[in-house]
Amino acid sequence: xAMRCGIGWGEAPAKAILLGEHAVVYGHPALAxxxxxxxxxxxxxxxxxxxxxxxxxxxRGLAVSLSRDPHNPLTLAVRLAVEALHASPRNxxxxxxxxxxxxxGLGSGAAxxxxxxxxxxxxxxxxxxxARLSELVYEVEKVHHGTPSGIDNTVVVYRRPVFxxxxxxxxxxxxxTELTLLLADTGQGSLTREAVGAVRRxxxxxxxxxxxxxxxxxxxxxxxxxxxxxGDAEELxxxxxxxxxxxxxxxxxxxxxxxxxxxxxxxxxxxxKLTGAGKGGHALVLVTEESAGDVRAxxxxxxxxxxxxxxxxxx
Length: 315
Ligand code: PMV
Hints:
The protein is 41% helix and 23% strand. It has nine helices and ten strands. The site of (3R)-3-hydroxy-3-methyl-5-(phosphonooxy)pentanoic acid has 17 residues, from helix 4 and helix 5.
């Protein structure tokens, strides 16, 4: 392949699971949206003095190289992209910046991988089609999670609301109304691998109880898709609340998540729940344009470390 000069660019958004986390790992559907306010961005260039691939993250004072750290998710992402382009993984320098909080339920790993892969492909003057890119990001997700459902890579690559079921092609529901979401950070990191492992152990101990909760979550997701498409934000908020109760019973909430969820509801939210793996990370709160200010204040008073407003546009 002819090498081109210049710079390659790539970016990808964060994601939030509206409903269905954890149950999605066991074949139930989940509904998720991209969060364009939070992004990973990468820049790639050739450096012929490097017989290697180096990924730099200046904001964190971090540099990793493929030769020294071949299993690092950052170098792995670039290597997989280069191989998919039938090129060799050398002479490459990438710079990454990301406003997606890490280990907090917002798909940071998938966003970073997708941005690095897009930048690499763009440097070679090629664009990877979304299905292929999603598969490649999924390969890196396995390093982060062990047994990822595949929802994170799908949402960050397609950059559209997704109704996702493992093993089926993604579907793209069109929101009937704009959604206003507040993401409230508990300030506590959350490792997806650990939360998913805890659910796996709970299921091994009592499969009937856990499967019944997961079945219930799957039905909430189906109802939420209808509410999303018909633009019924109030119903969607009610379903957030039901999903949070089910996640509490799965054992993946935490005192700080419950405090934020409760404060959001008292502050006038349409609904609130944990999002992503849980046991820390972020609460996801559905508000109206009018209630957003009061709910934000309630979340801050309840100890949220940061509250980020995100909008999902009507299509
Ligand atoms: O916390 P995150 O952003 O990694 O999301 C995890 C979502 C789970 O359903 C818990 C796991 C998965 O692979 O879908």
